Every structure is written in structure tokens, then in C-alpha cells.
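Now for a sample.
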Amino acid sequence: MEQRLNYTKAAPGGYRAMAALNRYVEESGLEPLLLELVKMRASQINGCAYCIDMHSKDARALGESEQRLYALNAWRETPFYSERERAALLWTEELTLLSEREVSDAVYEAVRPHFNDEEMVNLTLAIVTINGWNRLAVGFRSEVGSYQSKHKELA
């Protein structure tokens, strides 16, 4: 598919604002691989090929296994993820699918023991951010496949 427009050039101030929020999330203290799983899962739900390509490359560069990346869409049925990761993925799905249902108290109570107050807010901001990037990339058809990871490839 052909890119519709380059949003970074069309609205550089908006792009800088998104990038600043993204930088905050990356520097928030949440584990980098946890953030990549969250970004990939939201991108899967939103059908964002550009972001799936980007975050699978970044996750691999950080040492994530192919098995865990391949199984991410079915994380509930696998033993490959920690309880903290499962909680983050559940929260990601609930907030990404917010238009379909409210976030129940039961879900919140299932997620809460795995994150302190600051981490809960930062995880939520990570989900807000990737959902925003997904909407930009899908809406304007960002070119898929050319992304190079910002992380050094691990041997």
C-alpha cells in the first residue's frame, strides 16, 4: 500500500509531542522487553503492520525469543510469559479494546498486584502511546518493512 501522507512532516509539532511521550515511557523504568510485548500486542489488535514490524525487530534486538513473539497473539494459552507480563498484556488488551467494553474491577484487581502506583500509570501511558502511534501509522499507511531497530543486534 502507498503511504497517504508523512505525518512527521505535515505536523512536526504533533510528532514531537508524541515522541516526547514515547521517550517518557521508555525512560519510565518499566522493563524494555515488557514494553515491546505491550507495543506488539496493541499493534496486533489494531492491525498495525508498521508497528508490528518495528516492535518485533526491537524486541528481537533486545533478546526476545521468536517463540514468545510468535505466540503473543495467544498469550493466554502458553506458559511462556511471566505473571507480570500476563498482567501487562491483559491491561493492554482491555485499554486497547476500550470502545467494546468497560475495564472491569475484576481486570483491574487482577493487574494491580503486579505494578505499583507509578508503574500502573506508566504502563497505561505506554498503552496510550502505542495506540496513538497505531492510529497514525494505520490512518496514513506508514511504509512497512524498512524499519531498522534502534537497539544493537545481539549476537
The mean pLDDT is 94. The two ends are 33 Å apart (CA to CA).
